[in-house]
Amino acid sequence: MRMSEGVEWALHCCVDLSILEPTQTVPVNRLATLYDLPPAYLNKQLQALGRAGILRSTPGPRGGFRLARPLEEITLLDVVVAIEGTQPAFRCTNIIRRGPVAESDAEYGHLMPCAVSQAMRVAELAWRRHLAARVVADVRAVAELRAPRRSTMVREWLVGKGNHRERKRRPCGDRG
Amino acid sequence: MRMSEGVEWALHCCVDLSILEPTQTVPVNRLATLYDLPPAYLNKQLQALGRAGILRSTPGPRGGFRLARPLEEITLLDVVVAIEGTQPAFRCTNIIRRGPVAESDAEYGHLMPCAVSQAMRVAELAWRRHLAARVVADVRAVAELRAPRRSTMVREWLVGKGNHRERKRRPCGDRG
DNA sequence: GCAATAATACTCGGATAGAGTCTGTCCGAGTGTCTGGGG
DNA sequence: CCCCAGACACTCGGACAGACTCTATCCGAGTATTATTGC
Questions:
Q1: What are B61-94's pLDDT values in tens digits?
Q2: A109 pLDDT band (50/70/90 cuts)?
Q3: Residues 6+ apart with CB under 8 A from B47
Q4: Distance between A6 CA and the closest CA of chain B, angstroms
Q5: Does B72 touch chain A (CB under 8 A)?
Q6: Are A42 and A99 in contact (CB under 8 A)?
């Protein structure tokens, strides 16, 4: 059982986007460079976050991704569900309903899960409950306690490296 | 993220083996028939349980699998770990240590997990804690409350259908 | 009738293919920006 | 100088291959049973 790598990527990206102004967008290429990730694949993950209403994207030049709502309103579960989907890890295939001593529907209804399924689901629910109780802002707070200077460095790197075009903007006095 | 189907199979098989006498063995073929499962693949799963010390196997005729210890001493986590392995679902790939603003080792040591990894691991630990708090005997208790007659039916089916050979044993009076 | 022996059939156990999902990549649709020309 | 039109470059978005894990299967090693043979 392995969680998609995209969850880690998505969480870090959300934290970094929260450092900037709420209206500022960052193209996926910049985020990919920040973490040395394959840009197209990271784009795929951020698309999923967009579909889930966590990020909002704008096409065209000066476009990119930005948070759709404050970091305090994004739970870890929101991100996990956006990347992994809603299906639970443990999926009962109802083997108890098969074979020579199959549980008949008369004993109890179709929709009632078996004891095994119920126990596994309770444990998984505890996991999801923990994920839902933590917002990404908490993660950012811990991260800033760890490395206070990182926020500034990331912000400056994200906005500083030519987010507004410098292509044709020659240095002052170079205009001839 | 998807948990192996073998976990469901293994849990049901443990419950069923606990119905019989502790010394009685059941071949995998019988258990596979009981749930209409591929026998060789179920065998693979039960092998994993054997390696984990949950089941004990005996080869040869009259052989098969039996519980290695009472059902009260087998936690759900034991079974999950036996099938799925010990690695966590969320695996930090340390992307924060990469790229232009990578966290330097000087900030904090190599072994210290990042805030994202820590948060995810705490949630997963809660899940494992719940799994470790429930033993398979609890699951069996719930199952028997649900379908009280099933235990008897399963026991009779497991031991009754020629567990001792009837191949050459003709009916009484047929010998002459 | 009894014991020893060889054959037998049954069991697990690990090594070997196939399917599905996760990972990674590519190109196209859409949009804001920049350049050039005209009024 | 200001306005407009066209071309451009940049962005996301979904469609397309490759890698890895899960699923499923097969055959071999080992053992208790069973039939046979000799005493």
A1: 999 999 999 999 999 999 999 999 999 999 999 9
A2: low
A3: B57
A4: 10
A5: no
A6: no
Q: What percent of chain B has pLDDT over 70?
A: 86
What are A166's two structure tokens? 């410098």
Which residues of chain B make contact with A76, given a CB cutoff of 8 A? 119-120, 123
B119: nearest CB among A108, A124, A134: A134
Q: Please check the confidence at residue A175 and state whether its pLDDT lies above 50.
A: no
d(CA A55, CA A73): 12
pLDDT of B143 above 90: yes
- Do the beta carbons of residue A145 and residue A110 sit within 8 Å? no
The answer to whether residue A137 neighbours chain B at the CB level (below 8 Å) is no
CA proximity to A117, closest of B15, B168, B49: B15
Residues 142-161 of chain A whose Cβ lies under 8 A from any Cβ of chain B: 142-143, 146-147, 150, 153-154, 157
The token pair at A49 is: 């976050």
Residues of A with Cβ-Cβ distance to B31 under 8 angstroms: none
Mean pLDDT of chain A: 88
Element (H, E) at A55: strand A55-58
